[in-house]
TrEMBL record:
Gene3D superfamilies, per database record: SMI1/KNR4-like
Source superkingdom: Bacteria
Originating organism: Comamonas serinivorans
Domain Knr4/Smi1-like, chain residue ranges per copy: 29-168
Name of the protein this chain belongs to: Knr4/Smi1-like domain-containing protein
Length: 323
C-alpha cells in the first residue's frame, strides 16, 4: 500500500498568506463534485497529490517559490519561479477553470495542449508550469514541466510527478535575485527603448508632439506599480490600450474590434527587441477593454468606423498629459 501524498511534509507552512491570494486564487476546499467537474472540463485526471495540496488550501502563493533546473530558461540560468498555484474550481479568475485558467493559456496565449497549466510565473504569462500528460495519457501520473513562451514554447522537464515538484521547491533567497535591479532595467526599457516602427509612425501623425513622452510616462507609472512592464486589466493598462487605439483610429479607419486586435501587436506587444515591448500579449485583455468601452458609450461608431467618444477622448488626453 502506497503512502498518502505529502506524508511527513508540513503543508501548514507551505502557503504564504496574503490579501492578493485570497482575492484572486483561493477557492473553498474542493468537493468531490467540483473535482470531477474540473477534470471533465479540462479532460485530465488530477494527480492525487494535487488534490491533497489543494485540500490544505485551494490555490494560492507558496512560501518557497523556486525550483532548480539543469538548463537555462528565459527566467534564469539555474531555476524557474512560480508565483502561485491555481485552485481546483471555477470561481476565482486564476483557478484551473477560471477565466484566466489553464484553457485561457492555450486559447489566448498559444501554449501547447500537453495537459494542465497550474503554475503562474513572475513573467505575467510568458512562461508557465504545467502537468504534462503526453507520456502517461489523460488518466495517468503526469510529469511537471516548464513551458517557455519567450523561447518558442520550449518545454523543460522539472520533476517526474507533482509531489516531487512541490517537495523540491526552495525559497527565492537561495538565488538572491535583486528586484530593485530588475525594476531599474524595466524602467530603463520603457524610458529609452525605441518605439516599434508602427507606433513611431502613428505618433508622428498625431498633432501634439508631447504624445511619445506621455506614453512613456504612463508606461513608467505602470512599471513602478507592477515591478515589470506588462499590460493586463488594470486602469493604467487600459489607458494605454485607449491611447494606442486613439493613435491608430486617428491615422486610419478602424472598422471592427477584430481589426484593432489584428493591428495591436505591431503597436507594442510583439515588437522585436530592442523595441518598446511587453514581450507578449493576451488578446482577451484588449478585447475586454474594447467591449467594455462599447457598452459604456466610450467607443462609438461614426460613419461605420469605431472612434473614442468626444468625452472619452477628452478624458484620455487630460489623463495622458497630466501624468
Amino acid at each position: 500500500m502506497s503512502a498518502p501524498p505529502f506524508e511527513g511534509f508540513d503543508l501548514h507552512t507551505f502557503w504564504d498568506d496574503s490579501d492578493y491570494a485570497r482575492q484572486e486564487y483561493i477557492e473553498p476546499p474542493p468537493t468531490p463534485a467540483v473535482i470531477a467537474a474540473v477534470e471533465a472540463e479540462l479532460g485530465y485526471q488530477l494527480p492525487a497529490s494535487y488534490v491533497a495540496l489543494m485540500r490544505s488550501q485551494n490555490g494560492g502563493i507558496p512560501v518557497n517559490d523556486c525550483f532548480p533546473t539543469q538548463q537555462a530558461t528565459s527566467w534564469a540560468d539555474d531555476h524557474v519561479a512560480i508565483t502561485a498555484f491555481k485552485g481546483i474550481g471555477f470561481d476565482q479568475p486564476w483557478s484551473l477553470c477560471g477565466r484566466l485558467g489553464s484553457v485561457f493559456k492555450q486559447d489566448q496565449w498559444g501554449y501547447p495542449d500537453i495537459g494542465i497549466y497550474f503554475g503562474d510565473c513572475p513573467s505575467a504569462g510568458h512562461d508557465m508550469i504545467a502537468l504534462d500528460y503526453r507520456a502517461c495519457g489523460p488518466q495517468g501520473e503526469p510529469a511537471v514541466v516548464h513551458v517557455d513562451q519567450d523561447n518558442d514554447y520550449a518545454i523543460t522537464p522539472l520533476a517526474p510527478d507533482f509531489e516531487t515538484f512541490v517537495r523540491g521547491l526552495v525559497h527565492e533567497s537561495v538565488y538572491e535575485e535583486d528586484p530593485d535591479e530588475m525594476l531599474r532595467e524595466a524602467l530603463a526599457h520603457v524610458r529609452y527603448a525605441p518605439f516599434s516602427p508602427r507606433l513611431q509612425h502613428l505618433c508622428a501623425l498625431w498633432p501634439d508632439a508631447r504624445m511619445p513622452a506621455a506614453l512613456r510616462r504612463l508606461a513608467e507609472a505602470l512599471t513602478e506599480d507592477k515591478g515589470y512592464f506588462a499590460l493586463h486589466a488594470d486602469a493604467r493598462s487600459e489607458r494605454l490600450y485607449a491611447a494606442q487605439f486613439l493613435l491608430l483610429s486617428h491615422a486610419q479607419p478602424v472598422a471592427s474590434q477584430a481589426e484593432f486586435l489584428q493591428a495591436y501587436p505591431d503597436l507594442i506587444a510583439m515588437a522585436s527587441s530592442p523595441h518598446w515591448r511587453t514581450g507578449g500579449w493576451a488578446p482577451d485583455f484588449v478585447a475586454d477593454w474594447f467591449s467594455a468601452g462599447v457598452a459604456a458609450g466610450q467607443l462609438v461608431q461614426v460613419e461605420g468606423h469605431w472612434q473614442l467618444s468626444e468625452a472619452a477622448r477628452t478624458a484620455l488626453l487630460q489623463a495622458l498629459f497630466a501624468d
